[in-house]
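worker-3 :: picked TNFR-Cys domain-containing protein
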Amino acid sequence: MLVFKLVIFTLTLAQYINSSDGGSTVCPKGKRVKVSRGGGCEVCPDGSYQPDNNYSQQCKACTNCEANRGSFVKEECTKETDRKCECRKGFVPLEKDSSTCKCDPGFGLKDGECSQCEDGYFNNRINSPCRKWKECTSGVNITGSRTSDVICNHLRTDYNITKHVITQLTSHRPFEKTQTTTTNTVATTTGTPPQTVEPTRSSNTGNYIGMGLLMFGIIGLLVLTAFTCKLHITANCMQRKTAVQTKDSCRRPVEESGNSRSSLKLNPEEP
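worker-3 :: tokens ->
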């Protein structure tokens, strides 16, 4: 009795499902169950198809081949088969059904056509035109290709200079300390006694010493100049003082002789 009830329930459920999808009417390929009441089948509308026998009221939409994306119609859509697309020359499929295509790097897109870049031109993006290689006035370092531009010498030189400066700025005591620690660790691991590694003095220390000596020399030169000027002024003052004293010594005998003559005039009777 239980089995019989299960069978009745299954048949009822199947009938309900069929009735909700157009009833029990089976339509052939290229047709669908009529939407209106009364049952029956009708041909799929334009732009749609039905590849199998069905109970459905819907047909499948035909695939659209996008001509502006490099695709074209290879086989047109029918009531029973879908439309087949194919990529034009130079394009490659972007979708599995080739309804949309792309112009790969190394090829250039121009006026809706995709063609390989000529010599001296490149393209490293999809669906883009080819671009001309740059002109190197300082010479070519790396030759360009259809997917990459030329690299000039001066660009690589600037890169090397920048890399050298960064290396110089970062290769000081922190790096030496790390290197010393690494050396000690390796020595311990291999079982040999660790050796003390003396850190190499940075080249900046020599620069600082040179600058200090230069400043010291400049200061010493200034002091020596000031001392020389002072000696020169002192010497001039001594010369002037000596000249004044010499002039005074020459005048005193004359005055004394004048005094003696006047005394003679005042005392004429004295022998």
